[in-house]
Amino acid sequence: MDQIPIVLSLYYSGGSSQKTIGTNVGRDKASINRTISVLLKQGFVNVIQDNIDKRKTYVELTASGEKLAKQADAILVKFDFTLSSELTAEERKDFDKTILKLIGVVTPL
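^ that's the sequence the OP posted. Answer follows.
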């Protein structure tokens, strides 16, 4: 389950470095490396080593990874629609404001 935020981060960004992925999902380098290794073995990502700095890698989704990301994104959109359909426009605005505030509290600086 901890793989989906990384897959979606790559889907929305079109691919990125492991450092950027970690920043986007709020996880440490070791956790990102483990998850990327699992996704690589499952065929959902490609890992490309930087030609200049061999310590850096770029991660992108494979066709299978894109398919998985699209499915996950569709589920999230449906979930969001289902929840928000029960709220008035004002309640939704207040909810979004509160969620953004909470994200700011838990997001590492």
